[in-house]
Description:
The chain is 49% helix and 14% strand. With 597 residues, it is α/β, with parallel strands linked by helices.
Amino acid sequence: MSDLIESELDTIIGYGKKEKNKTLTREHAFVVLSLQYLCYQKANIDDVWDEIMDTNFTDSKSDGGIDFVYFDEDESEVVVGQNKYSDKITSGQARAEIRKALETLVNFQKTSTSRYAATLRQQLQDALDRLADESDGNIHLMFISLSNLTQSSVVSNLDDRSVSSIDVVNADDLENIILKTQSDQELVPAYTLDLDKAKNFLAYANEKEEGVIVNVQSDSLVRLYNVHGTKGLFNLNIRRYIRSKNVDDGIKKTLSKRRDEFWFLNNGLTIACRDYEVDGNRLKLTDFSIVNGAQTTTLIATHNDQDTPAFSVPTKVVMPALSSGKIDLMNFFNDIAEATNSQKPIQPRDLKANSPEMIRLQELLKKNRIFLEIKRGIKVPKKYNYHIKNDHLAQLLFSFVNQHPGTARSSKRSLFSVDKNYKAIYRVGYDRDKSKADFLVDLIQLNELFDQIAPIFRQRKVDITPEELIIFLNGKPVLFALFGVIYRLVNGDVEISDLLDEKSSFEDKFVYGAFIRHYKNDDIAERLTDLITELLGLLADAYLTELDRGNVTSVSNFFKTDKKYVNTIVNAFAKKYRISSKMDELVEQYGVLFKRE
């Protein structure tokens, strides 16, 4: 057994007993450990305990071979895990466990779920329902154990059509991720790599940076990995531990059968460093990290056939042209890491990055010390108070103003790809109308306040039920849509009766103007917290009613469409607050946050 993993398990068990009055077996602690490091990538269990226990942990009787469920928002992917706290698991036993989990996923696709535990039904269904149409079926299965299993020895002969990928994680893999997450060594201090031959390089420089393209020998790269693989080599490229099966298979095929063509078939590596020197057929590096190419390096270093001749790996090395302190150096590294890792398929928001309205909006917000990110991979200057991405802002606007939280949550791409949606969000002349500009700034400030108080909900430092926590974790667009309803009501733009009138089209009635900036008291966070708590109670009641009637399968399913929002959620809101005393209380307590002047 790994001493590091055992020590981490002791920490988790001790924390649960002392801080949460909860006793965990080592098997259950191993599930928590896997989530903490493989999914959340947090070194402190206190940061993720509540969320793990409330929304991820499913290990129990009748769990269908699935010990945890995690939704990766960045990848729009459901991650399910099967854990075995044992170093004696065989490949055949691992395959049997994986088949059990695969069968469970197939049964959920068929809605044949009655045999499974309630916790699994709730959490897995909720995660599956969060997948948008374009990412439907994007499910990643992880098998984690302490046994010395390899990917190839386990996944062969498995029918994996119900998932997008399968990952086998052994003790060494898990230990490496723990070390990377905990490591405070940001860089490799020094190392010398072998090149293919002397004087075979291409150099380039400008006033700020300089660099060189060389051919690093693969055996030299393996030695570097063996010494520094967990000590700074990839620290600027840490992500959730998840392999890309298609890329892995392509690199492995090249390593096995076409090594002499590796230079032509692989994009190679990017190394950022404080300094470098090409000396004959040697490359001397100082204070460096591989910022792009961790997957390639790892596969080269861990490939089974290491006895074959070395081959060349194309490598770009970059450094700042002028000597700089540690902070400036790390900023330089971050710029390189972001730029070289942002070469992803073009998204609809990318196509709008250079549009006139987007550029004008960015300039408008800059004047209010808000940085609007309209291009991916751009580093946020420190001089701004707030930072928001244009796709996130689009979600807020489409929820608050246009009252379409289902589309905002489930089909974010359509906010840019569907012209009608994009026009309603961004082609409204914010730069030509002060009231619209003021409203936009205040909406961003409201979002910032929401994000600041979000941790107290995630960690259940407020009195909410497990269902209300799940609603909070899934329901930000719906909450902002209800904020938009309250904004309309307190300013007299609509009446409560309009919300119950199917012909009123209340969502089309919107008057822009400054609002939250007018409230000057220092209890603003407390007021918003109380409002969110009240709305969570209303949403939970409406959700449980729909669930009992068989109209929805999960919280995510409840929030998925705009029609459900208008017909069920807005209806429930209107029926509660049409009582004059309730409406008066709502306006008195929370109207001051949304009142225009």
